[in-house]
């Protein structure tokens, strides 16, 4: 059973942030990227777009189109396209300056009201979706795993082992630092209107990540000697989720030809959305 003390703290949090539905859905701001719009609607108010030269913005768009919008999953895309000198360093510097809520992986979701009968019910449905997506990806990759609930009804954990990724099977004396695992933890949502650009602005249960403690979290934790393609696994899991569930990655690796750029991004149905806008013409990334 979930501890009563946690329910009490969470109930207070919901009362403080507001339980009633908003009068109208959040509208899309065309001056920002789609990643920025979704992140801010989901409570990640400290994420910001990076303004880059138009030539780099267009190069990113061409590379994503050539890769079928899977820019994160390949190092071969972008060959023949060059980025401005120092762009990678600029994005990395921007990443390192991300404070508080923008410095951690998070889940954002708006589950349609008809999907559940209560906030508690929809909380379990969100965990179910993550459980199914994670299991599917691990099975497709032929990765062996053990699932636990982390002694909490609001949490799921998958410890996995793979010789290919140098993830060891548990042996006596090992700690979490030695092991590879995936964790998802969600708290009860509030009932409100989804953004106009998600679920057509209908009444939903919103899982937001603006609180410093009770935020929706999702993380792949590699063992200290492992070699896990975390970004590829994040994207694969995201691709198995309903389109109203988003994953924010605070520190991801974006492969562009032979160059790897470290920056935050948002996953929508497995597709990476970057927090970038063009210097001369702002638009969706």
Explain briefly what this protein structure is.
Residues 1-22 form the signal peptide. The protein is of the alpha+beta class and 285 residues long.
Keywords, please?
27% helix; disordered N terminus; alpha+beta; 285 residues; 4-stranded antiparallel β-sheet; 12 strands; 6-stranded antiparallel β-sheet; 25% strand; globular
Can you describe this structure?
The protein is α+β, with helices and mostly antiparallel strands and 285 residues long. It has one domain (31-278). 27% of the residues lie in helices and 25% in strands. It contains six helices and twelve strands. A six-stranded antiparallel sheet has the order 6-7-2-9-10-11, with helices on both faces. A four-stranded antiparallel sheet has the order 3-4-5-8, covered by helices on one side. Strand 3 (144-148) and strand 4 (155-161) form a beta hairpin. Helix 5 packs across helix 6. It is globular and about 50 Å long. Mean pLDDT is 85; it is low at 1-22.
Q: Catalogue the unreliable spans.
A: 1-22
Assembly of the depicted chains: single chain
**Largest β-sheet summary:** 6 strands, antiparallel
Structural class: alpha+beta
Proportion of residues in extended strands = 15-25%
Widest sheet: strand ordering? 6-7-2-9-10-11
Please compute the radius of gyration using only Cα atoms.
19 Å
Number of helices: 6
Based on CA inertia axes, which overall geometry fits? globular
Could you report the average pLDDT, rounded to the nearest whole number? 85
The figure for the number of domains is: 1
The residue fraction in helices comes out at 25-40%
Distance between the termini: 43 Å
Protein name: Lipoprotein
Organism: Pseudoalteromonas amylolytica
Keywords: Signal
Signal peptide: 1-22
